[in-house]
Amino acid sequence: MRLPPLPRALLALVAATSALTASAATAPQPNVLVIVTDDHGIGDVSAYRSGADVRTPHLDALAAGGMRFTAMRSNCTVCSPARAALLTGRHPDRVGVPGVIRTQAANSFGFLAPGLPTLANLLRDAGYHTAHVGKWHLGLERPNLPTERGFDYFHGFLGDMMDSFTGHLRHGQNYLRRNTEVITAEGHATDVFTTWTREYLRERARADRPFFLYLAYNAPHFPIEPPAAYLERVQRRLPGLEPKRALNVAFVEHLDDAIGEVMTTLEETGLAARTLVIFTSDNGGSLPHAQNNDPWRDGKQSHYDGGLRVPFLVRWPGQVAAGVTSGYAGQTFDLFPTALEAAGVPLPADLDARSLLGHLRGGPPPAGPRDLYFVRREGGPAYGGQDYHALIRGNWKLLRNSPYGALELYDLVQDPGERTNLAAKEPRVVRELQAALSAQIQRGGTVPWQAPAAR
Fold first, then answer.
1. Coil, helix or strand at residue 396
2. Which of the following is catalytic: 137, 168, 254, 289?
3. Are strands 31-37 and 169-170 parallel, antiparallel or unpaired?
4. CA geometry: angle 289, 101, 277, nearest 5 deg
5. pLDDT (mean) for 10-33
6. What pLDDT was estimated at residue 452?
7. Are 81 and 72 in contact (CB under 8 A)?
8. What band does 389 get if pLDDT is binned at 50, 70 and 90?
9. How buried is residue 63: exposed, middle or buried, by Cβ count under 10 Å (0-12/13-18/19+)?
10. Which of 102, 296, 417, 442 could be bridged to 108 by S-S, CB 3.0 to 4.6 A?
11. How far apart are alpha carbons 443 and 248 in whole angstroms?
């Protein structure tokens, strides 16, 4: 039996879709630039907050030139686990980094699993030149130096934080490196990392290989140290602003100008048109340091959404439409399979992350249910070296903010501010999410989070 002919409009749609698919399939591999800032609250990007006291015109331009995600969460409330997740596409406890890797071993709670391919490994295998500029925070020595985890080139800081943005030391030790060479630098760390990035981009503009650049600023992590000129400008513009807040606003605006310099260099070198740019933060802002996570509750270290919600911006000329907003509720490690798929690299098995590529190109967001899982291990009297967790399933969120705290349950649709704890009223939901959480904890528990003992 012969089928009736398809309507012309449907034929045209099929032809257009096929042409777009073919074009995407034959397009050259894009450069990939991932920019990660440190403790950058979602309320400290003015594209996310109407009437904000902070001004971030360069990040706002990045948002206007691509897709702005409004419901993206980090994989962790603190630095190392979030970075481990986005570089592996797996939950941080599944890669050995449930907590912060610190320069003092007695207070360190992670060890990046040896042998596990990173995003840099997989892109390098696909022909990319791979580079990391800025803050590493995933290991101080072999086998977890950047150049041993897939990066051809490293120019940055191995440690967790700097005692001063102009002194560049941590506990009096120098963790600045060029590849494995100990180096020194002069100037504000944000400016230093920007200079190194611009030098790298100019070099890659003369090469015939695509590049993957992971640019990780350590601003606006404390100590809050903006250049004096930026603080004076903020104080003139907002004379009544609380002093601690003025410092942070100036710090963020300095960082935004630095990112603007990087984006300008992309344009000047002719790289912008073929570069996929992804911007995000490792976790929410620190409230004791006057950072802003509005309108979400709490901040860094907390499993309330102020500690998890982060800015997430994607620009890719010719592939991602400008000025688009997405409410997809993902996690920042989704950039891992997204970058691989954009580069035409097969995805590894057993990922927890999901590719956003089809969504970025105008399709629907990734389909199907997925629990959003969060873990952090920490020491000291408040945590005792134990984990605390959160899990989101649909509109429900189960969490605790201390290993010793009671479980809390929130309906994120009816109560996005997480003010009404429903754990006592919804015991069935608590049990269901507890079971899902237990399964995640069992999976993570198979991976060691401390370095093997020396023999």
1. strand
2. 137
3. unpaired
4. 70
5. 56
6. 83
7. no
8. very high
9. buried
10. 102
11. 39
State the chain's mean pLDDT as an integer.
93
Q: Name the H helices within 214-326.
A: 228-237, 243-268, 305-308
Closest by alpha carbon to 63, among 212, 200, 263?
A: 263
End-to-end CA distance of the chain: 75
Please state which CATH number belongs to domain 29-360.
3.40.720.10
Q: Which whole number is the average pLDDT over 97-114? A: 95
Task: Determine the pLDDT at residue 454.
Answer: 56
Comparing 29-360 with 372-444, is the CATH topology the same? no
Sketch the domain layout of the chain as residue ranges: 29-360, 372-444
Catalytic residue (choose from 79, 91, 221, 389) = 79
Q: Which CATH class is domain 372-444?
A: alpha beta
Which residue type, as a one-letter code, is found at position 338?
T
Q: Write the pLDDT tens digit of every residue in 320-367.
A: 999 999 999 999 999 999 999 999 999 999 999 999 999 999 999 999
Confidence of residue 368 (pLDDT cuts 50, 70, 90): confident
CA 415 – CA 273 distance, rounded (Å)? 42
Q: Is 79 a catalytic residue?
A: yes
H/E stretch holding 57: helix 57-64
